[in-house]
Amino acid sequence: MPQPDDSKLRVAILGCTGSIGRQALDVCAQHSDLLEVVALSAHGKTKELVDAARTHHVACVAVTDSSHATDPILAELPKGTELLFGADALARIVVRDDVDCVLNAVVGAAGLTASYETLRSGKRLALANKESLVVGGDVLMPLARPGQMLPVDSEHSAIFQCLVGEERNPIHAIWLTCSGGPFYGRTHDELAGITAADALRHPTWSMGPKITIDSATLMNKGLERIEAMHLFGVPMEQITVLIQRESKIHSMVEYEDGSVIAQLGASDMRIPIQYAFSYPNRWDAPCSRVDFREIASLSFGAPDMETFRCLALAERAGIEGGTYPCVLNAANEVAVHAFLNDECSFTDIACLVERALDAHVREEAESIEQLRDVDAWARSFTAHALKALARS
């Protein structure tokens, strides 16, 4: 957990070369009097990792893809910086004595173990890796003490902020907002010919390729519903996806008396990143403010769950629970990777995920080891289903 108020919060950023990681580094640079970056990880972008390590003078870095262990650029790390390799390096970083807070911005289920070890070690977890809770929420949530896990997703940070001071009041509904992605309003037939280049053009947010595709299929919003269910202890049926095209309302909480509290602001991930570091305090804004006098209107709508079937599949997995969300996530990761490599169509993503869910026999989620096995099964099944799809 954080150090006393008169010292800096010592931060480890996992996935520092991705979109969230880079913006987190910018927040740390803007508030260098309050934050100290002590450890960083990257999967394979060693040049960017070394640049960040030199800028922030970090004590430790990790490269999770061991095939980059001999990259010449690593020789340019600052003198004395510890260098770790392999998938287990993340767990070694988060338990370091000089780390108070871990920002987990790793993409996909690969971030689960790091989140687990962070919570077990009693450190603050700034969670940008939604898959940790989608896959392992039943295992992780019992470990989290109040105020220990701070969501970084803009929607979940918004919900968290709407709940501050309202702990005793029952929630009627959570309105989880969504831009609708680049294909809002399209029919299923119109989605059939979508290319990866088309899907990577998100109307509002600048994100990595995997999450951008998830936003286009609306799987991202389905995963976020499951994440919200775990974070806030609210059943899926009380979490409603709301299309908010301008992306200025980041989510809302409706209470039993009919009052609705919303969090609004710029479409800039540095705000929720900073709040996960500063909580319960608020620091100077890390980005330009919104002038609400210049916003002509705010529009709302309902998602088309028949056309965007990933959203319905996520609802199914979330309601059935157990190991189903693990299968959902793993199958989706394989399918999205295939789509990005022109190995399947945009609409095939939902078909592949559905096949994996249909083939799975549900278990209660009980341990990290069990979830790793289920994840491996789902990936293997989906890879075989992809080959069968290509032959048909």
TrEMBL record:
Pathway in which this enzyme or protein is active: Isoprenoid biosynthesis; isopentenyl diphosphate biosynthesis via DXP pathway; isopentenyl diphosphate from 1-deoxy-D-xylulose 5-phosphate: step 1/6
Entry EC number(s): 1.1.1.267
Record-listed Mn(2+) binding positions: 153, 155, 224
Residues covered by the 1-deoxy-D-xylulose 5-phosphate reductoisomerase C-terminal domain: 149-232
Class of the enzyme per the UniProt entry, highest EC level: oxidoreductase
Binding site for 1-deoxy-D-xylulose 5-phosphate: 130, 154-155, 179, 202, 215, 220-221, 224
Lineage top rank: taxon: Bacteria
One biological process term in Gene Ontology: isopentenyl diphosphate biosynthetic process, methylerythritol 4-phosphate pathway involved in terpenoid biosynthetic process
Keyword Ribonucleoprotein among record annotations: no
Pfam families: DXP_redisom_C (PF08436), DXP_reductoisom (PF02670), DXPR_C (PF13288)
Stretches assigned to the DXP reductoisomerase C-terminal domain: 264-380
Catalytic function, reaction form: 2-C-methyl-D-erythritol 4-phosphate + NADP(+) = 1-deoxy-D-xylulose 5-phosphate + NADPH + H(+)
Obligatory cofactor(s): Mg(2+); Mn(2+)
A single GO molecular function term of this UniProt record: isomerase activity
Record key words, sorted: Isomerase, Isoprene biosynthesis, Magnesium, Manganese, Metal-binding, NADP, Oxidoreductase
Protein residues bound to NADPH: 17-20, 129, 131, 208
Coiled coil: none
1-deoxy-D-xylulose 5-phosphate reductoisomerase N-terminal domain location: 11-137
HAMAP family registered for this protein in UniProt: DXP_reductoisom (MF_00183)
Reported function: Catalyzes the NADPH-dependent rearrangement and reduction of 1-deoxy-D-xylulose-5-phosphate (DXP) to 2-C-methyl-D-erythritol 4-phosphate (MEP).
NCBIfam families: Dxr
Family: Belongs to the DXR family.
Protein name: 1-deoxy-D-xylulose 5-phosphate reductoisomerase
Gene name of the encoded protein: dxr
